[in-house]
Design a protein that fits this description.
CATH superfamily: P-loop containing nucleotide triphosphate hydrolases
Order of helices and strands: EEHEHHHHEHEHEEHH
Shape: globular
Number of domains: 1
Largest sheet: 3 strands, parallel
Amino acid sequence: GVYAPQQGSITFRGQTFKHMNSHQVAVMGVGRTFQNLALFKGMSVLDNIMSGRNLKIKSNLLLQALRIGPAEKEEIRHREAVERIIDFLEIQAYRKTPVGQLPYGLQKRVDLGRALAMEPQVLLLDEPMAGMNVEEKQDMCRFVLDVNDEFGTTVVLIEHDMGVVMDISDRVVVLDYGKKIGDGTPDEVRNNPDVIRAYLGTEQ
């Protein structure tokens, strides 16, 4: 919803939209991570992931602050859900650590955890491997695959690391300056002459 498309539309779950805003997207069940981390650096891992439950919290702000009655029970339920995500991402040892003190690769996991806390039907990952070393990329690939396998979440991945894309994707779409030049399985795209010409070059 940040940019308005010049043409075309977005269809999700049978509804077609020309314009969408971020709140509407979230309510419909679309979660996202950020290429440039947008975490709350002074807050703990647990509290950062807890912020992803915001749309699911029904108690009003006053009851939440006082932690009384239904609000306390609701918070306990949400914290249990967050603890499950922390276990899933294998970051139990850092749950009370301020995010700003974590290495970059672990901050990326927290960003993924916050998106998962929304319980999205579709998860948009904006260059989740950017800036990572080989080991961190391998870990993130495993988590992305596990999100799809264990939660049944559809994952849409934007990524420039072609090795990662080809290894973990069921379907690959290739853009060249905004124009779609390839669409298919990894093998189909890998052998597409337009993709080879644009990204790999051809012999003279």
